[in-house]
Amino acid sequence: GKFIEDSSISQRALERAMKEYPYLSYQYIEAVNDLDLNFGGKNSSGNDIDFNKIKADAREKYLPKTYTFDDGKFVVKAGDKVTEEKIKRLYWASKEVKAQFMRVVQNDKALEEGNPDDILTVVIYNSPEEYKLNRIINGFSTDNGGIYIENIGTFFTYERTPEESIYTLEELFRHEFTHYLQGRYVVPGMWGQGEFYQEGVLTWYEEGTAEFFAGSTRTDGIK
């Protein structure tokens, strides 16, 4: 016989997943996301699903801790398993990298005041698994060890074990923090825009200097 696809079958299957899996689990959020993308955010009864509230609840669940430094200009939002000691270490690492960066580029004034990066926000999930949720709840690629988004002044990443990544959280943070400094103090405009980024001819500069300054220390220069 002729097969006729009934989209409501898929819709009801996604609703069942929402009932079967715990609220805010990866499977639950994935099901809600599929309903939002494919069914206009409605269930099979035609009622709206409040996806924005679910995403807000997920941020609170997976990033419950907030730390503020430098009078609110450096903010960390972290999972409950990311230690305060680790967060403070990242803050001091940012100071080491920034000091060496300023020494080399000879500029400590932001090229453009009033940009989102006036406040740097660092978002750290508990694990690679929880980080995958960032694709849905914040809308950014998670096929990476971490990513800095200049137009919102935010760096997204996750805590990891040596088995999960060849880079430690601090090593990756130092690299991405240098990208933040490049965008704020050296390259005008937003990332990917303007002459600097045309045809990708200066990618070597971006990535090379990020690797270089990742080796910044407080007392021994750059290693």
Automatic annotation (TrEMBL):
<keyword id="KW-0479">Metal-binding</keyword>
<feature type="active site">
    <location>
        <position position="176"/>
    </location>
</feature>
<dbReference type="GO" id="GO:0004222">
    <property type="term" value="F:metalloendopeptidase activity"/>
</dbReference>
<keyword id="KW-0378">Hydrolase</keyword>
<keyword id="KW-0482">Metalloprotease</keyword>
<keyword id="KW-0677">Repeat</keyword>
<dbReference type="InterPro" id="IPR002169">
    <property type="entry name" value="Peptidase_M9A/M9B"/>
</dbReference>
<dbReference type="GO" id="GO:0005576">
    <property type="term" value="C:extracellular region"/>
</dbReference>
<keyword id="KW-0106">Calcium</keyword>
<keyword id="KW-0645">Protease</keyword>
<protein>
    <recommendedName>
        <fullName>microbial collagenase</fullName>
        <ecNumber>3.4.24.3</ecNumber>
    </recommendedName>
</protein>
<keyword id="KW-0865">Zymogen</keyword>
<keyword id="KW-0964">Secreted</keyword>
<comment type="similarity">
    <text>Belongs to the peptidase M9B family. Collagenase subfamily.</text>
</comment>
<dbReference type="GO" id="GO:0006508">
    <property type="term" value="P:proteolysis"/>
</dbReference>
<dbReference type="GO" id="GO:0008270">
    <property type="term" value="F:zinc ion binding"/>
</dbReference>
<keyword id="KW-0862">Zinc</keyword>
<keyword id="KW-0843">Virulence</keyword>
<keyword id="KW-0732">Signal</keyword>
<dbReference type="Pfam" id="PF01752">
    <property type="entry name" value="Peptidase_M9"/>
</dbReference>
